[in-house]
Specification:
The protein is α/β, with parallel strands linked by helices and 288 residues long. Helix content is 39%, strand content 16%.
Length: 288
């Protein structure tokens, strides 16, 4: 494994992606070792792990820690989880930032399940009850392979198509989140940044519950450029769940996305050399 995995917290990464691992227990151990005070928010059978910074909640960063059964889940979503641990450690040292880090449960849906079965849906309902529906939510998924930061436009397209006053209000907030993400990318000196439609992540549950959320992912530069050049990528493919595509269309989807949710999602596909950039972006998101 890459030299980067010898340094904490990534030294626990192999334990986390082991097929027999209880990812909840491993993550709780990692957070304890990182001296990150956390609490478990149990909702509808889901166990979300919350790390709060001091100050009124202004920004929420999420990464789901669950995985598809049988998959190592190295990129989906192990890498982002560990990057979020590193970012939380750095941000907490800054003192009162108004940032909260949530490691979410049950992002992955099984056949026959709906968006309202997603853990982030119930989490969003809980945030609304706490009066936090206006908090800025950024969700990180599949951020471990590549060197190009992708700010998803899938939610924007979906809301434009749905129409209505509530969709318009959410769209306005999505635009603010996207602008904040672009400012954070500049502040963190992220050279390669693209706006592209991506598969939905925790943002789907948040949106269904009426809370705006911006998904961030990463792709290898060549894959990102090829996908951006497809006219269909900006229309019919926008926000689609990968498994819903016929095989002919799946071949047009970036290989990195096609490798998710299966045995091929292993550490061999990861590019740890870029992770510091993503962590820097996470930290910048808390500041802009």
């Amino acid at each position: 494994m890459d030299e980067a995995f010898r340094v904490f917290p990534y030294s626990r990464f192999q334990n986390f992606i082991d097929l027999a691992a209880d990812r909840f227990e491993v993550l709780m151990e990692v957070l304890e070792e990182a001296s990150l005070p956390c609490r478990v928010a149990a909702m509808a059978g889901r166990r979300h792990i919350v790390v709060d910074c001091r100050g009124a909640v202004r920004t929420i960063l999420t990464a789901h820690y669950d995985r598809t059964p049988g998959s190592p889940g190295a990129n989906d979503n192990g890498a982002a989880v560990f990057m979020l641990v590193e970012a939380a450690r750095a941000v907490i040292k800054q003192g009162e930032t108004g940032a909260t880090f949530i490691f979410t449960d049950k992002e992955e849906l099984s056949a026959g399940e709906e968006i309202t079965d997603q853990g982030s849906y119930f989490l969003a309902l809980g945030l609304r009850e706490l009066g936090l529906e206006s908090a800025r939510v950024f969700t990180f998924d599949a951020c471990g392979a590549g060197d190009t930061l992708i700010i998803s436009t899938a939610a924007e397209k979906l809301l434009k198509e749905n129409g209505g006053d509530s969709a318009a209000a959410l769209l306005k907030r999505i635009h603010k989140l996207r602008d904040a993400a672009l400012r954070a990318a500049r502040q963190a000196h992220v050279e390669q940044t693209l706006l592209l439609p991506t598969p939905f992540s925790d943002d789907a549950g948040f949106l269904r519950a009426g809370i705006a959320a911006q998904t961030i992912t990463v792709l290898p530069r060549a894959e990102a450029a090829a996908f951006a050049s497809l006219s269909r990528a900006k229309d019919e493919m926008a926000g689609a769940i990968l498994t819903g595509f016929p095989e002919a269309d799946r071949q047009r989807i970036p290989e990195t996305w096609r490798s998710l949710n299966g045995t091929g999602d292993s550490p061999l596909r990861l590019t740890p050399a870029y992770w510091k950039k993503v962590v820097g972006f996470m930290r910048a998101v808390c500041e802009v």
